[in-house]
TrEMBL record:
One of its GO terms (molecular function) is monooxygenase activity. Keywords: Monooxygenase, Oxidoreductase. Residues 4-358 form the FAD-binding domain. The keyword Transmembrane does not apply. It comes from the Bacteria. InterPro entries: FAD-bd, FAD-dep_Monooxygenase_BioMet, FAD/NAD-bd_sf. This is Flavin-dependent oxidoreductase.
Length: 412
């Protein structure tokens, strides 16, 4: 079969590599003129690393990522109240990686080039419309630089992996409107600084009113012994903090952020100093979209953020896109009927992804931060930590997001 993929982001590229591996013809059309290593850190959880491992990519990813050892939670006084090993350190068959999003995309681009050839991987090709009938789908792309249309592309299946502002989703759901703003603004930055805790720990500090997520994304140290640390501050702003444009590269005011976090100077990490020494800081409205009932229409479907943009809670955005790929591949292995395969894909992934979107709206695993803040606003004594209650919340999220250890380790 011939697949046309709109979007050369993480979901589109992994899908292209995976479809080629099972013998299909694939062409990828990416809107931007040039692929650049944009973004900051993301996490690849064991359930998606399983898929990437089966595509032969684990060792290459390991070379540019940090293998995450543990996840810790602390309150706004820096008191640690939860710690759990992650990935292989927790007994999973697959590691968890923290990685620079842009470097990961570049790696996937190179791998896709090798897999499908440069004659099948295009930039400057922005999807604008499609038509389909019993025989095929016909897709129109435009070069946004010149405004010129590409020749109509013919294929058996069209996959819209074109991100949160998906054009294909807009065509399929013309009345949906914009993204849904959460009332929170995210501040994303990177800082070269001394490592903390294990040197490969992901730390969540504060509550959902004022939070900071911190993790290293490069293993090696620079000549001054510093590691590259990725961080994301999350501030509850309400409607007045509404940022209208969801632009991944909008610069934020460092001084204001330093003031907000000025008391966050703990013996195991100095958050205030980390912000002060940041290279650059980007602000971004935390948004998602309401889950859809259906992603597939005949020969056309959605994948990744185009299908289910979600809050970046629980480190699941990229992982869920790669779980879509996994389900799509199994569906197309099970039948040679493209429309039937997409029905199977929808049946598995539409409800599963909706659960994660909704769970993230309910704070996901970070619910434990608000629980501790509400119960112990002035800090806690060690013997007051409700370990069992916290453990239950953490396990429930893993089950919903598809990475509880028993279920996952039973897979190959
Ligand atoms: C520039 C950028 C920076 C990001 N930085 C971060 C980050 O720091 N942290 C984080 O957690 N997540 C980040 N993300 C989002 C993250 O990559 C996704 O949430 C996740 O990986 C799911 O990937 P995806 O392939 O579905 O979407 P994306 O990674 O967003 O990829 C979508 C791709 O589709 C292309 N595209 C858009 N419209 C069209 C069209 N009409 N036709 C053809 N191609 C189109 C886009 O240029 C993009 O390359 C970023 C995304 C982008 C595009």
């Amino acid at each position: 079969m011939k697949f046309i993929i709109a979007g050369g982001g993480i979901g589109g590229l992994v899908t292209a590599i995976a479809l080629k591996k099972i013998g299909h013809e694939v062409r990828v059309f990416e809107s931007v003129e040039e692929i650049k290593p944009l973004g900051v850190g993301i996490n690849l959880l064991p359930h998606c690393v399983r898929v990437l491992t089966n595509l032969g990519l684990q060792n290459k990813i390991a070379e540019i990522a940090v293998e995450t050892k543990e996840l810790v939670y602390a309150n706004r006084y820096g008191q640690l109240f939860w710690s759990e090993p992650r990935g292989r350190f927790a007994g999973y068959k697959w590691p968890q990686f923290s990685i620079h999003r842009g470097k990961f995309q570049m790696l996937l681009w190179e791998e896709a080039l090798k897999a499908i050839g440069k004659e099948n991987l295009y930039t400057n090709a922005h999807l604008t419309s499609f038509e389909q009938d019993d025989q095929e789908v016909r897709v129109q792309f435009v070069n946004k630089q010149t405004g010129e249309n590409w020749p109509i592309e013919h294929g058996d299946v069209l996959i819209g992996a074109d991100g949160i502002h998906s054009e294909l989703r807009k065509i399929l759901y013309p009345n949906e409107g914009g993204v849904v703003y959460s009332g929170n603004v995210l501040y994303r930055g990177t800082t070269k600084m001394k490592g903390y805790l294990t040197g490969a720990s992901m730390a969540m500090i504060g509550s959902l009113r004022q939070k900071m997520v911190i993790y290293p994304i490069v293993d090696s140290l620079d000549p001054d012994g510093n590691q590259l640390i990725n961080w994301v501050g999350n501030l509850k702003m309400g409607e007045e903090g509404q940022l209208t444009v969801r632009d991944w590269n909008r610069q934020a005011d460092k001084d204001r952020l330093m003031e907000i976090y000025k008391n966050w100077q703990f013996d195991w990490i100095n958050v205030h100093e980390m912000i002060a020494n940041a290279e650059s800081i980007y602000e971004f409205p935390m948004s998602d979209r309401d889950p859809l009932d259906k992603w597939s229409f005949g020969r056309v479907t959605l994948l990744g953020d185009a299908a289910h943009p979600m809050y970046p809670i629980g480190s699941n955005g990229a992982s869920q896109a790669i779980l879509d790929t996994d389900a799509l591949i199994r569906a197309f292995e099970s039948t040679s009927d493209p429309i039937g395969a997409l029905r199977i894909y929808d049946a598995e992934r539409v409800p599963a992804a909706a659960l994660v979107v909704n769970q993230n709206r309910q704070k996901g695993p970070d619910f434990i931060m608000d629980l501790m803040e509400d119960r112990f606003p002035d800090g806690f004594q060690e013997n007051e930590i409700p370990h069992e209650e916290l453990a239950e919340i953490m396990l429930k999220y893993k089950q919903i997001a598809g990475f509880d250890i028993q279920t996952l380790n039973a897979k190959h």
